[in-house]
Amino acid sequence: MLSIKVLLLGALAQCAWALVSDVPGLNGPIPVVPDTQGSKTRPSDFIHPGLWHSHSDLETMRNNVLGNVEPWKSTYQAFSYDSFSQSSYAMRGPFAVISRGGISNYTSFQADTRAAYHNAIMWYITKDDAHWKRSTTILDAWGSNLTNIIGTDRSLMIGLDGDLFVNAAEIMRWEGGWVEQGAKWQGGSGFSIQLYWLFARQSVIIGQANYGIVSIKALLSFAIYLDDVAMYNYALYAYKNDLCAGIESTIDSSTGQSSESGRDQSHSMTGLGWLALAARVVNNQGYNLFTYANNLLLKGSEYTAKYNLNGTVPYDPKFYRCEAVLVNGPWSKISTDQRGIQKQVWDILHYSAVANKLQNPWTLKAKQATDALGGERRVTANDMPSWGDLFFATKG
Ligand SMILES: *[C@@H]1O[C@H](CO)[C@@H](O)[C@H](O)[C@H]1NC(C)=O
Ligand SMILES: *[C@@H]1O[C@H](CO)[C@@H](O)[C@H](O)[C@H]1NC(C)=O
Ligand SMILES: *[C@@H]1O[C@H](CO)[C@@H](O)[C@H](O)[C@H]1NC(C)=O
């Protein structure tokens, strides 16, 4: 008798877990923001595919790979041998509940989203159906099984791995004709329901410094996939104006200093990479954020590249991030912690400057120093997409 009860309870619990539930309580409505340049007014204003890669970006990538043009050719060669790029990649998930950190199947989500994205790019370049299947089966499996993301680092995880995932979905949907499994108007399961409730709604609370930037850049991607005008305008406005995560609160407009320059160099670099991804997405929607506020992002890139190449830069101890106290700040001096150009952010920053015909001497030097070490190739986490000479390369 007892065992039957337990079985029944188990079955009921499984049913409950099979639905994305319980999330709306975490966040209220998307705040209404003032109109800002680049805002959308209706869903049909969105351009698809239009996150990290527009249709013409994808064509440029494919044509240069097939035409053996550098740097696409050799980067693609390495990319195509990467384990995440294989159509035979063995999926590690899906799981029902994940969180960032040791407790929780996080690395399987991290790996599977990476593989879904790599296979989407591989499919676009090769048009091999096996890649189409691998990418979309990963999207559908997680899309219909994942019911909750928990823990304090959830918005960070969503902003990184979730953004990679939606980039795979955008390519497969708009270029590959993928129709996701399981989505019904009654709710329930399916990629876009997961995207809306688990990823997008939980990113609406924008945190401070990089924590906030990651949500802003991911919200832009999510909003475009979902054709959500209010969400997009909210994230765009935050990129410009948020007092703890917007570009003017994270990069000093007079010098280019990062609000985390005193903390360590790795956070300073990562923030620049995420702002650059946001700017790329918005650029694909027809508005230039890269040159926003007198090329402020480039100014930040030049400052941090110079310092990490052992150059001397001015430092203002009064320019620091919100909640600095949480991370042992504010800081009286610029930090030498993790000094060096190790972060994979320079390709996108350099190529964005080139596309805008802007001089970027230190950013270029940082890119060249990265290239001398083998280029943006070693994928160990999803902080950045990596493979910048394939994904973001442009000819002036
Ligand atoms: C991963 O998820 C499965 C099923 O949801 C669970 O049984 C397993 O314990 C989880 N692993 C970790 C490390 O939490
Ligand atoms: C869950 O994932 C598996 C693949 O592991 C898939 O076969 C299944 O259709 C997914 N969805 C549900 C609701 O189980
Ligand atoms: C900067 O200085 C460090 C320590 O002296 C050195 O290891 C590193 O190679 C230098 N970097 C560059 C780009 O010169």
From TrEMBL:
Signal peptide boundaries: 1-18
Annotated TM spans: none
Protein name, entry field: Chondroitin AC/alginate lyase
GO terms, molecular function: lyase activity
Listed SUPFAM superfamilies: Chondroitin AC/alginate lyase
Cited InterPro entries: Chondroitin_lyas (IPR008929)
KW Signal (keyword) present: yes
Keyword set includes Lyase: yes
